[in-house]
Amino acid sequence: RLLMSRVRTNAAERGGVFDLANTLGQQSMDLELLAGDPAAAAAFGREAMGIYDEIGERSFASTAAGILARVLYELDRLDEAEQSATVADELGASDDVLTQILWRQVKAKLLARRGDHGGAQRLAREAVALGNETDLLNHVADAYADLGEVLELGGRTDEAAMARAEALARYERKENLVMAERTRARLAEQTTTAP
């Protein structure tokens, strides 16, 4: 957090508005999600989106909107999460794979919570398929974890566990210790609560 604060301060002091927005809209939000503070992540995301709007930036804004949608979903601010995912979808280029993954993840979980399990699983599997064409291990792992949530909400607990195991394997490969531990805990919880 100290290092990220210095990066943000440095960008602001030298007038690097674009760099500041990117730091806020990606690394700062990611860091706060890992630290378990989605409220702080949301504040950074909102600030980034305000800057992107001011300078008319759309490409990086689409990715930040996708990350912000994930953050807002974590905060259970579902309407706002959906709005942010829609912004990511609308701004994101078709070849911007990360943005395409992000908005699908959030919309899939929202559909699952509304009971549209078929639509939710389709979107979640699209996110995984898109991710598997990249070397973005953390994001692919996130997509598998979200597929696990979608499957669990649809009552498909065995498949949910398999999806989470895929997520865990990628987090471990990337050496993302925080998410690997959270995923292990979620798998253990799912095993103990399974009928």
Question: How would you sum up this structure, described in words?
Answer:
The protein is built from ten helices and no strands. The chain is mostly helical and 195 residues long. The mean pLDDT is 94.
Strand and helix layout:
Blueprint: H1 2-13, H2 17-35, H3 38-55, H4 59-74, H5 78-91, H6 97-113, H7 117-132, H8 137-153, H9 157-174, H10 177-193
Helix pairs in contact: 1-2, 2-3, 2-4, 3-4, 4-5, 4-6, 5-6, 6-7, 6-8, 7-8, 8-9, 9-10
Task: Describe what is shown at a glance.
This protein is an all-alpha fold and 195 residues long. It is built from ten helices and no strands.
Largest sheet: none
Counting H and I runs of at least 4 residues, what is the number of helices?
10
Approximate strand percentage: under 5%
Please trace the helix and strand order, writing H or E for each element: HHHHHHHHHH
Distance between the termini: 41 Å
Mean pLDDT: 94
Helix content: over 70%
> Structural class, from helix and strand content?
mainly alpha
Low-confidence regions: none
By DSSP, the count of extended strands is 0
Gyration radius, to the nearest Å? 17 Å
Task: Give the overall shape, derived from the CA principal axes.
Answer: globular
